[in-house]
Amino acid sequence: MPIEIDIQALKAKNEDAFRQLVNAYGKDIYNVCLGIIPTTEDAEDLSQEAFVKAFNSIDSFREDAQIKTWLIRIAINLCYDHLKWSKRKKRHAIMQPLFNREDEPIEIPSNFQHPGIALENKEHAKVLYAALETLPENQHTAFLLYEMQGLNYKEIAETMAVSVSSVEALLFRARAALRKKLHTYYSDYASFKK
Predict the structure, then answer these.
(1) What are the contacts of 158-167 at 24+ separation with CB within 8 A?
(2) CATH number of the domain bearing residue 148
(3) CATH code at 29?
């Protein structure tokens, strides 16, 4: 059941209303970010940034939509922008030594810090995240929202601004691609272990 949030108070920039919004959806938005950005520090920063962006752009919120799906869309867009920026930074780090040999290459840490994943499952989680990262953005988003956030098809459609049938197709393709990638990995892993 959706939480009642006073939209008019939000649009009036009432800080108590925004505090209520953060308390109501902070964990959900953080988990969405963590589903895309697998480091806790970046996920936390991006979830906070999503609420700041929501605060600054609340006037653009359509009141016929759910505030939760609007917040999720903001968070998802910020996360994918962050990933694109990180990839550009990584490419720059690789190219930098080619053009400027005096500078040391920039190290991009590949740490994986997802709370709630037991130590013995971290390797499996890394494999899943790596497989998820190979999916097209729209498939990744649909899979994340359905499998990891528990949104229904209608909520996903609203969040992604697509039809329910598009959500069904995206989930079908995402699952098929993940099954193939994970099957290949675990088949190779099993033969390697022998």
Answers:
(1) 158/65, 158/66, 158/69, 159/69, 159/72, 159/73, 159/76, 160/73, 161/73, 162/138, 167/142
(2) 1.10.10.10
(3) 1.10.1740.10
Q: What is the pLDDT of residues 139-164, one digit of tens each?
A: 999 998 998 888 999 999 999 989 99
Contact 112, 39 (CB under 8 A): yes
Residue written as tokens 């759910």?
66
Domain count, the chain: 2
Which residue did the predictor score with more confidence, 136 or 92? 136
Instruction: Report pLDDT digits (tens) over 18-38.
Output: 999 999 999 999 999 988 887
Quick one: which of 72, 63, 76 has its CA closest to 28?
Answer: 72
